[in-house]
Specification:
Helix content: over 70%
CATH architecture: Orthogonal Bundle
Order of helices and strands: HHHHHHEHHHHEHHHHH
Radius of gyration: 21 Å
Number of helices: 15
Shape: globular
Number of domains: 1
CATH topology: ABC transporter involved in vitamin B12 uptake, BtuC
Mean pLDDT: 90
Low-confidence stretches: none
Length: about 325
């Protein structure tokens, strides 16, 4: 248990910081804090996508199914809110459960494939699930137009009692805290894997499945476990995003951009670690916002160039680059 102590203390400190961040932003930026809180929410969203994708990547599998699990979580909460008279928040954990069950069903079939074949299979699953949702009866899933989903948090005061920006801030703050809770849960999963025997098992499977089997590791079981653990946070994220955005539809909710963000961010930050995806999400969210404000028309071009440069010249991501520079500096200092 000692090996869990330091990571859990750091995680607790991060959780406390997340709770206080909205108040800090409000005190520092006033009315502008609404936009800063939106930026923080985007960064947390990106971190959840990146870190959850990395959980499966540690077994050597490149999944393109994140959009499927995200959409499954979003539609689960939407359908529950539409068909059942239950509290809205129930849809959020159900979104994670449904995503995990889908991964449990999909895993034994697709995880026998390797490399590009597995990636294509998971991408195909996303398209199949989108088509299924689109052709469900309109009274259940809304068909092609999608569903309107009620907000999870609504102002309870009379209009005019507070300024408009304060209303927006309080709503965004409530959602941010839920996003922060999902992020803490995802980091906890990552810490559990990193500090337990699963780390060695996943690494062995990623390195050589035949050797891993000889060492007593069941490669299929390890990959299915990683697949399920990777899917649950994304389902939770899709559910809370559906309430925040107010609607879902098959084309946007199952959009490939979700998978692309989940794939690129941990590569940019550093694979197979807890810190790498978090650093990558923070930097990319800030970079995207800065580029939007400075060059609204062509920011995606610069954003893409930065990502290509990072993939080509930082094979271990930002965390690997910083670690390499630190080791080189320490070695040079020791030589002198």
């Amino acid at each position: 248990m000692k090996r869990f102590a330091v990571p859990l203390i750091i995680l607790a400190a991060l959780a406390v910081l997340l709770c206080f961040l909205p108040g800090i932003a409000r005190a520092m930026f006033g009315q502008a804090s609404v936009s800063y809180l939106s930026l923080l929410t985007n960064a947390v969203t990106l971190a959840i996508l990146a870190l959850s994708w990395d959980l499966l990547a540690r077994t050597g599998q490149v999944s393109l199914a994140h959009a499927a699990f995200y959409g499954a979580g979003a539609y689960t909460t939407g359908i529950i809110a539409r068909l059942f008279d239950v509290p809205l928040w129930i849809g959020i954990p159900m979104g994670g459960i449904v995503a995990g069950l889908l991964a449990l069903l999909l895993g034994p079939v697709t995880l026998r494939l390797h490399g590009i074949y597995f990636a294509i299979a998971t991408l195909s699953f996303t398209e199949v699930l989108r088509a299924v949702v689109q052709h469900l009866p309109a009274r259940i899933a809304g068909g092609a137009p999608g569903l309107n989903i009620p907000a999870l948090f609504r102002p309870t005061f009379v209009a005019g009692e507070m300024e408009r920006w304060e209303v927006a801030f309080l709503r965004n703050e409530s959602y941010f805290l839920v996003y922060g809770g999902i992020l803490v849960f995802t980091i906890l999963l990552s810490i559990f894997i990193q500090q337990s025997r699963l780390r060695s098992a996943f690494t062995a499977v990623r390195t050589n499945e035949k050797v891993a089997a000889v060492m007593g590791v069941n490669p299929m079981r390890a990959k299915i476990l990683a697949f399920v653990l990777s899917s649950v946070p994304v389902g939770l994220l899709g559910a809370i995003e559906a309430h925040r955005l107010g609607s879902v539809n098959p084309f946007e909710t199952f959009g490939v951009h979700t998978t692309v963000l989940a794939l690129v961010t941990p590569i940019f930050g550093g694979l197979y670690t807890t810190l790498g995806p978090l650093v990558g999400a923070t930097v990319l969210a800030g970079l995207e916002e800065g580029l939007k404000r400075s060059m609204s028309d062509g920011y995606l071009i610069v954003y893409g160039v930065v990502l290509v440069f990072a993939v080509l010249f930082m094979p271990r991501g930002l965390v690997g680059l910083v670690g390499k520079l630190f080791r080189r500096r320490r070695r040079d200092g020791g030589d002198s």
